[in-house]
User: Which sequence fits this backbone?
């Protein structure tokens, strides 16, 4: 089971590597890894388990954060509405690829954090508001989906990890809260 000790922190060179494409058909090892990554996200969002296991809550995780330089990410975005417990996005994605994106940019009003970064780094992380994404799912089936707003932000954060990019690389050093006209701030 994945816990915080398995997550590498900034300074580890793996976080700055471009990860390798996963070989298809998916190996049992890569399928099991995806399952463990998703299990970590579920546990990290369960107050009892997160407390027991000392987990930081996360809505996404990328294999390079486990010192595994493979293009695998897991995302699990809860709906945040107790009436409707269905997550708005839950998937293990192999070889995810952004096929196209909106001209419109967006950022989270509260900025971003990262399980591999044990410090606050304030500032807007400007990303694409909408993306069209392809990936291979855990059954080996090629998927093509469109995401927007928070879900699109999360997936871009994870795909950045596959390319050795950290969220703070996007923050304007001169003025962390500088915003060009038209950037959507998602609260
Ligand atoms: O890479 C996953 N991770 O470090 C957990 C945090 C994920 C995340 C946090 C804020 C905005 C988008 C994504
Ligand atoms: Ni991260």
Assistant:
């Amino acid at each position: 089971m994945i816990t915080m000790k398995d997550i590498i922190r900034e300074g580890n060179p793996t976080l700055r590597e471009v990860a390798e494409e996963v070989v298809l058909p998916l190996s049992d090892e890569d399928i099991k890894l995806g399952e463990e990554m998703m299990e970590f996200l579920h546990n990290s969002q369960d107050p009892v388990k997160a407390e027991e296991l000392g987990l930081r809550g996360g809505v996404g995780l990328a294999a390079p954060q486990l010192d595994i330089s493979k293009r695998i990410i897991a995302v699990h975005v809860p709906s945040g509405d107790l009436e409707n417990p269905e997550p708005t996005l839950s998937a293990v994605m192999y070889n995810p690829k952004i096929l196209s994106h909106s001209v419109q940019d967006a950022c989270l009003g509260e900025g971003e954090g990262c399980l591999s970064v044990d410090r606050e780094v304030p500032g807007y992380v400007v990303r694409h508001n909408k993306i069209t994404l392809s990936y291979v799912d855990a059954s080996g089936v090629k998927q093509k989906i469109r995401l927007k707003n928070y879900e699109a932000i999360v997936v871009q954060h994870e795909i950045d990890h596959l390319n050795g990019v950290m969220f703070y690389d996007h923050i304007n050093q001169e003025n962390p809260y500088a915003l060009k006209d038209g950037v959507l701030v998602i609260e």
